[in-house]
Please model this.
Amino acid sequence: MCIRDRFIAAGEAKWLRANGLVMLLPHGYEGQGPEHSSARLERYLQLCAENNMQVCYPSTPAQYFHVLRRQVKQEIVRPLVVMTPKSLLRLPQATNRLSHLSDTRFFPVLGEPRVPAEKVTRLILCTGKIYYDLVGHEQRKDNERVAIGRVELLYPFPEADVRDLIAAYPNLEEVLWVQEEPRNMGARAYMSPRLLQILPDELEFGYVGRPERASPGEGYPAAHNAEQHRILSTALDVSVPVSAYPKKTPGER
Model:
């Protein structure tokens, strides 16, 4: 933590020393216990300011390739933090054609393909591997009122890309931030105020994820699977109202 705080996040501001260090941090909720989910994404996002570093959570091989390629070719040298879930290494859905590596670029935000935009009333925004859990869930099939967008670049915040994605759905009613991490972890505390600032006034905003926890993840696969299913089914069920706030007040336990 001392190295990260003093020399990576604040290296240029404090010491006038720029660096292009790349940090690949295993991070994903896969039912293997809390140590598999301990990259602490939220802590890196807390350190982000003044364009001091980049924080990414790529979900495809092409995105991973292009973010590393961009890091090498960047004119302004700055550190890069990448979340790298182990389950995406062998996931059949997380693949690309070779042309995606040679003929495209890194996209800060990815929309869900083949979704009838005029029917969408709920837009789910997420980052990382939970996207594949959402699109592969049984409630996703034939659910045309929901679209799922991936925020691949968390910092610097891709405001223009997020605005363009929201504008792509003319009948949108609500936007959700969905994450695997507990409420006090992950990207929620970073993303929520930024999304609320740019969302049109007529759109509702909500959060779906794990409640606040002391440990990053469950230690029992059965408990993990039950909680993961709850998150996915709540996010995909448009009949279930969602809120940006928990049911219990801050003083309750």
Summary: The chain has a mean pLDDT of 93.
